[in-house]
Amino acid sequence: MAKKRSTNLVTSRQIEDLVRVVRGQRVMLDSDLARLYGVTTSRLNEQVSRNRERFPDDFAYQLTQQEFAALMSQNAISKSGRGGRRKPPWVFTEHGVAMLSSVLRSPTAVRVNIEIMRAFVRLRRLMATPGELVEQLTRLADTVQLHDEQIRAVVEVLNRLMEQPAKPRRPVGFHARNADGQS
Fold this sequence. Notes:
- By secondary structure, this protein is of the alpha+beta class.
- It has a domain at 12-128: Mlu1-box Binding Protein, DNA-binding Domain.
- The protein has six helices and four strands, in the order αββααβαβαα.
- The protein has helices at 12-16, 30-37, 41-50, 65-74, 94-103, 107-162, and strands at 20-22, 25-29, 60-62, 90-92.
- Strand 1 and strand 2 (25-29) form a beta hairpin.
- Helix 2 (30-37) packs across helix 3 and helix 5 packs antiparallel against helix 6.
- The longest helix has 56 residues, at 107-162.
- The radius of gyration is 36 Å and the shape is rod-shaped.
């Protein structure tokens, strides 16, 4: 039986794993993008440098040496001297990735770019969710507090009902009995 070939080269989930946060922005490394697009990192960076006017600093930027070192320690990026990078990588924001589709025009690049955009949109939705989540948790806490007070009142009433009734006390003093012998 022949294997069914997938039309998607990569899934949004796989792309989400490649998205990193640098300088408070969600970005993707040039090497990850090059691998997804099926080109070399040097080819991708060459196209970016040839079309630099399409990539302002809020679309793509090169990491500082410190950012690069931090990234190397957090992720499995090879060190220089071992066949790895010698220059800090370029990172691309969501807009930079969208602009790459106009620079890299292969059918593979188009399909991969669509999946990358879907991944960024999904991440944006997930990041919007915490605000809604906080609101729901606040409402839940208020409801629980209200129910907590009501439950305490019910428990208090039940405890009173479960208490042994107090034995009637014997009357103190002299009681005169009437003629039939009742007090």
